[in-house]
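Can't attach files on this board, so I'm pasting raw text. These are the components:
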Amino acid sequence: MESKLQQNKKIEMFYQRSKEHGMKITPQRTAIYEELLKAKDHPTADDIYKRIVKKIPNISFDTVNRTLLTFSKIGITNVVEGYGQAKRYDPDMDIHHHFRCIHCGSIIDFHSSEFDNITVPDEISKQFTVISKKVVLEGLCSKCRKG
Amino acid sequence: MESKLQQNKKIEMFYQRSKEHGMKITPQRTAIYEELLKAKDHPTADDIYKRIVKKIPNISFDTVNRTLLTFSKIGITNVVEGYGQAKRYDPDMDIHHHFRCIHCGSIIDFHSSEFDNITVPDEISKQFTVISKKVVLEGLCSKCRKG
DNA sequence: AACTATATAGTAATTATTCTTAATTGTCAA
DNA sequence: TTGACAATTAAGAATAATTACTATATAGTT
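---
Top answer:
Structure tokens for the assembled complex are below.
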């Protein structure tokens, strides 16, 4: 469970980044970001829209979708790797890794300093500029392996 | 460059898997699989369709799409992690890892026994059944880092 | 309070995927 | 080799996801 303090720190970061990029802080954007922070399930734009429309009934899906893309552009959320389905967003910007259930598709975050510190093969680091390293595990989650 | 022999082995595997799953070997399916094997670029269903329609002009996109999904279901291709764009297919079923260019979106395969052998944290292996482990690196490819 | 660049709602268009149907085809067993 | 049957196909249409457009509204600043 995340503390209220950490949440506030993230909101601060959100304000700061927005200003840095000359972006306006609008009620919609704030609501979208808060909804993202609350979400524990790597939601799609449509998920967020459905949750937020209860509070701001006349918000448009386009705003939500565009805003989420903007967020990931300025680095306050990540787009999570998926498999050709709708994009999934992840507000956790700390280094972390993913376990994905091949049956139900749910994605579980986990931390591992060993995985954080894997060393990139020379073959790759010579040719390319590596910005992020992430391990993706796949298999069956606890619910699905009972089936 | 892959040898003709290895290609034939893969075709054999394709026939075998198809029979195992009670699937028919049709000219369309064979052509789709051959096209996949030739591809070095993790193509989308649409890519494959565009290439194959030159040889089988009246094949439908639906057939290509459905066949690719079937292939990944019976384990003769993989769907590669992406970011909410079209699905991308990968005929290489050996263990390997991906580098993805965040600028142009191209995906480069690479091998690394270190990455193959990373050990899954207890936290995860206790709760879940891990079937595959993959490292996804992100950054700029050689072309894009000049921009 | 006014100005201005940016953001919004609403709508429309585009792209990707899946479904439905009737006709066709591969496979297997006689 | 042939016939029967179940699987597969093409084609069109439906659905889902994404992106684009524009007149209006708003945040942030003066």
